[in-house]
Specification:
2 copies of one chain form a homodimer. With about 350 residues, chain A is α/β, with parallel strands linked by helices. The first copy, chain A, has 3 domains: about 45 residues, 434 Repressor (Amino-terminal Domain), CATH 1.10.260.40; about 140 residues, Rossmann fold, CATH 3.40.50.2300; about 130 residues, 3-Layer(aba) Sandwich (Rossmann fold), CATH 3.40.50. In chain A, about 40% of the residues lie in helices and about 15% in strands. The first copy, chain A, has a 5-stranded parallel sheet with strand order 2-1-3-4-5, sandwiched between helices. In chain A, helix 1 packs across helix 2, helix 8 packs parallel to helix 9 and helix 10 packs across helix 11. The first copy, chain A, is elongated and about 85 Å long. The N terminus of chain A is likely disordered. The interface between A and B is large, with 49 and 49 residues. The first copy, chain A, binds a DNA duplex (30 and 30 nucleotides) through helix 2 and helix 4.
Chain lengths: ~350, ~350
DNA sequence: TAGTCAGATGTGAACGTGAACATTTAATAG
DNA sequence: CTATTAAATGTTCACGTTCACATCTGACTA
């Protein structure tokens, strides 16, 4: 059965447009790139032909000649989490509005090889800028040895941590985040103000800048209130681990309140407590961090610290685009988190 | 202060490699593309030079001459949800392993204009294939009028729904999903087997193929058991709306069990019930859908239907890549969901 | 009226790669 | 040893765009 060959329709190129409009291809190029030196009449004619032909500039040819890919890379890890995902979406949208493409790489492992491989993949795409959503110190350190020549924005709170200069160890880099320390202090202060004295902290895993910042905020606030600071229990962000920690904590209940480094762990811990018949917040007050959409409907509704992840993503792109256009003198305005007081906290019995 | 100009280091190109290896650029090209007709000695020499120079093929030049971008587009909506996000990650990883790039567009609105604009953005990138994670009928319908010439895989359950032929209305398209109807039947059967007779369904919003499929599965199973089917209550996937529905349902408690179309709504409903002092599952049994990671730690732990979103993503890419390579004769194996029985269901009192 | 100059438009080359075709080299058969 | 042929490698061109520079147009000045 003979197949009808679909007459190999080549997409119209800039010369087709030029020919039909009776101008040179360079004039069409000028119209496309918004040059000033074009007579309105000429511009109109060209635009009309573009419409008529449904002409779309060939991105590859542009990239080849300009060495600009109009692509921003995003390197992330654990993006299945609510925060990174939300930031990523905001990044994608903001970039798209500025007519940039986003190519993301989600790291499963965060060892040097994986980071390097992910980066290679992005570099093969000739990305013009990079956003890193991988708030683990080791990922950031991996960059130190790579000598990137493109602007980089990392979404982490390294800059907030004292004694950490890793953010400055490679060029053309900015670090951006919601103020984790301030958020942690708000959460802790809330518990203190309710009258709690024996407060423990369940931290995120070692090596995460977010975890370190939240712990530091907790410690700062406790010390400021003259309260004793006990060692933090180290979790891994998951509800599962939170549940196990909750069971451990039940062994000697020497606290009346917990500040937990994220909502998922707080959920797991709550579950462990409810399981043995404790009543929340009567027996224990719990504060989480992040304010994932489900947190309001946990049982009990979780008091937590809301971060504007979307705003974070938008700002990272704004920063990156500004840098790409040479205006790198920006004021790094702090993004403050917000305490959401709900049913999981109350005065101690 | 005189600035040292960084001697405009041009990245090495294929001719630099060729020159240094003492061969023609075409020979280098052959090495790069794994041609058979290369003497091992020559290949080794070229590879060595590539290593030495740190040469990386210019993607833009390749795309220009081959008209292949090695890029797959992903058009999604509501990707902040757990399922789509997980699928997206799997897609990204699978594509990267096959040396493809992924450019994603996340739709905020799903009207025709937004869908078209998103698609335009991807087409400007000359994507070779497209994955659509936007299980709303209107999005799929929008494609009908667009006459795409590239392979498309949609992640939705349209194909499972009787009387719906929209999946066939545009060419080169596949539809892929976890078997929603089977999952819904499992959930419903579980409640029936526990002894429940008065079971109601809280559905997803109108226009979502997933919502329709889950409702159909519920109805099918209820009818098969000879039980009366009451009209489904329509939600919007959010915990917030779930909470409101929970309050409404409390007005006349004419049911002993609920099958809710996703976990978030189930959470909101549970919260509403617990709020008025009901005990779960003693007073009401609830089954969700999706098995988000938090579901095991809800209070009570939620019985739900697990979908393998990652597998779905991987398969969509496998399907797409196969099609790009011409071998489109694939067996569309069903992906079956799994019922996770937890504490939120029990026999009626 | 001719000269000047800025604005508008055109011309040719270059970006880095792969495809098509041409040529050289090596191997095999007679 | 030569003819034949396949394998290996080389040469030229095209992809679609922007850049650098050249040319043309028209208005204003002296």
């Amino acid at each position: 059965m003979a197949k009808v060959e679909p007459s190999k329709v080549r997409a119209p190129n800039i010369r087709d447009v030029a020919h039909l409009a009776g101008v040179s291809h360079q004039t069409v190029s000028r119209v496309l790139n918004g040059s000033e030196s074009i007579r309105p009449a000429t511009r109109a004619r060209v635009v009309a032909v573009i419409q008529q032909l449904g002409y779309r500039p060939n991105q590859a040819a542009r990239a080849l000649v300009t060495s600009k890919s109009r692509t921003i890379g995003v390197l992330s890890s654990h993006t299945a989490h609510y925060g990174p995902t939300t930031s990523l979406h905001a990044i994608e949208e903001a970039a798209r509005l500025a007519d940039y493409f986003v190519t993301a790489v989600n790291l499963v492992e965060t060892d040097l090889d994986s980071v390097t491989a992910g980066l290679q993949h992005l570099m093969a795409r000739a990305i013009e800028g990079l956003v890193v959503i991988a708030p683990q110190a080791r990922v950031l350190e991996a960059f130190a040895g790579l000598a990137l020549t493109i602007p980089v924005v990392t979404l982490d709170s390294t800059a907030q941590l004292s004694g950490s200069a890793s953010a400055d160890s490679f060029a053309a880099s900015h670090s951006l985040s919601v103020d984790q320390i301030a958020g942690a202090r708000m959460a802790t202060r809330h518990l203190i103000e309710l009258g709690h004295r024996d407060i423990r902290h369940v931290a995120g895993p070692a090596g995460w800048t977010e975890a370190a910042a939240r712990e530091q905020g907790f410690v700062d606030e406790m010390l400021a209130a003259g309260l004793p600071v006990r060692a933090a229990i180290v979790g891994d962000w998951t509800s599962e681990r939170g549940y196990a920690i909750g069971q451990e904590l039940l062994r000697d209940r020497d606290f009346t309140a917990l500040f937990v480094a994220n909502d998922q762990m707080a959920l797991g811990i709550s579950h462990a407590f409810l399981n043995v018949g404790l009543s929340l917040p009567r027996d224990v007050s719990i504060v989480g961090f992040d304010d994932i959409p489900e947190a309001s409907y946990f049982w009990p509704a979780l008091t937590t610290v809301r971060q504007d992840f979307a705003e974070l993503g938008r700002r990272s792109i704004a920063l990156l685009l500004d840098e790409l256009q040479g205006k790198s003198d920006l004021d790094h305005e702090r993004i403050l988190p917000e305490l959401m007081v709900r049913a999981s906290t109350a005065a101690p019995a």
